[in-house]
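Input record (Table S2, row 562):
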Amino acid sequence: MGTLVVADHDNTNLSDATAKVVSAAKQLGGDVHILVAGQNCGSVADASAKLDGVTKVLLADDAIYSARLAENVAELVVGLMGDYDAVLSSATTMSKNFMPRVAALMDVAQISEIVKVEAPDTFVRPIYAGNAMQTVQSSDAKKVITVRTTTFQAVGQGGSAAVEKIAAAKDPGLSEYVGDRLSESARPQLTSAKIIISGGRGMQSGDNFKLVEAVADKLKAAVGASRAAVDAGYAANDMQVGQTGKVVAPELYIAVGISGAIQHLAGMKDSKVIVAINKDEEAPIFQVSDYGLVADLFKALPELEAELTKLGL
Amino acid sequence: MKVLVPVKRVIDYNVKARVKADGSGVDLANVKMSMNPFDEISVEQAVRMKEAGTATEVIIASIGPAAAQETIRTALAMGGDRGILVKTDQTVEPLAVAKILKAITEQEGADIVILGKQAIDDDSNQTGQMLAALLGRSQATFASEVKIDGDKAEVTREVDGGLQTIRVQLPTVITVDLRLNEPRYASLPNIMKARKKPIDEKTPEDFGVDITPRLKVLKTTEPPTRAAGVKVESVQELVAKLRNEAGVI
Ligand SMILES: Cc1cc2nc3c(=O)[nH]c(=O)nc-3n(C[C@H](O)[C@H](O)[C@H](O)COP(=O)(O)OP(=O)(O)OC[C@H]3O[C@@H](n4cnc5c(N)ncnc54)[C@H](O)[C@@H]3O)c2cc1C
Ligand SMILES: Nc1ncnc2c1ncn2[C@@H]1O[C@H](COP(=O)(O)O)[C@@H](O)[C@H]1O
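Output record (flavin-adenine dinucleotide complex):
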């Protein structure tokens, strides 16, 4: 027996979150297998097979998995769980959608967003927007776990596991995919970027985000936002960093015109270096920043861009 | 069409949770408690469906201590029709909550259950998905737009890459995200009216649900704290520090 990791992917590319989940899975002991459920996703299975520590890849290539609808993926995973002690996946919107369904069908608790494996049945997870860390021991025979990937190192790429094709499970026929509006961006993704610059309500308009983007281009950074900026329509929903958005931990996080509410801090306070630019010297964001600049962002951002240009960036 | 809206009483979102000195949990004594903010969005959605004539009745349910009655009253003041309080002083994990909600959904014949995507205390993000699984129903999570169309619902979801639209078979379970709507404030007359709306009191045993936790909390600790750093005087100084001191650019 061992652990099944469900791959996060878009039918073409394996998300780098999966290599981090594998690293958590290895800490449980036993074999680590990866399940790739999708359509025309052979390239994802091949990439999965290369991950260090993975001994087998199960490939369920079928039209009913093209959009990884929760009902369908859950049905497939539950059917495989006779062979495994635990199933792990990343705490991404894809996995948050189907994993609790798997847990309920197996009558076990899901352990959400673990940041540490203490023992094969004991895990640490943040609660209350990360204001407390809870160590929990599971009494369930099988474990269903989502992994907060910011705290696990990705495994390497030296593996060569066999890929085994498996049949699709029955289609519950409960839902269908209609379409999506995915954000296109040439910039790095928020969850894997080394540098992130985020704008908040202080940006005053979506148009003003150009100032943030200009700096992002210099630093090859991803662009994030606070909830207030997303709600106001200055930025897209997938840019929200925080308790209920994306959790990030880059080497450098620059918060511009963001006050530093608990819910925002929950998503970025594990960044290595934090910079805040805010005109209010009392803003709570300064309590977590390594470097704080009290300034008007409309003056500071163009200056920052110019300084970076001087450095040849 | 009947709509069930489960609401959870949680620490107010403006309050910073503090870990008890003995590591036994989070200190909730004398802390302001409110309705989970996502659940306000669910209540708003359900009430709008009733106003639009799509829903015939909006039932509010909460599982928790006696004080959760206040949370139900708040939802009734927003426009819910009646409440069900499943009283217990124990911690109820999402799986057990889902089991109790399954029983209520079946008893009440609720066609749509609308939950928050996440409770801001346990940050589990599980209950709606679990309920859908136990009921054998479709699910539409993290909704930012909901359109009911005959025996189907078309739901736009907030996903990591942007937005995704799916069509689900009714009956269904929906969990809501931040951008679905802006919840109303209850008016004074509606708060008064809500006092007269009925709230049924039950216990988990009434539904035959075993709420024994599956997870044993071994300890609760403070997260690592960050010391505040320094203020810099200028952009030039900032860039110099980032390059020479922190080495991140
Ligand atoms: C259930 C729930 C979930 C939430 N989830 C999240 C989440 O995931 N992520 C998140 O970010 N928030 C979240 N929030 C919202 C959070 O509570 C705050 O409301 C939000 O983070 C505030 O965003 P902000 O800092 O951009 O805006 P504000 O708090 O309004 O701060 C704006 C800041 O900009 C500064 N400023 C203004 N003009 C200038 C200028 N010209 N130059 C420099 N500085 C300027 C101001 O001094 C101020 O500090 C959530 C809230 C709830 C209830
Ligand atoms: N004790 C409870 N009583 C009523 N509803 C609940 C309870 N716990 C969770 N819920 C519902 O489930 C949603 C998600 O909670 P969770 O899965 O704990 O993050 C909440 O927004 C509520 O709608």
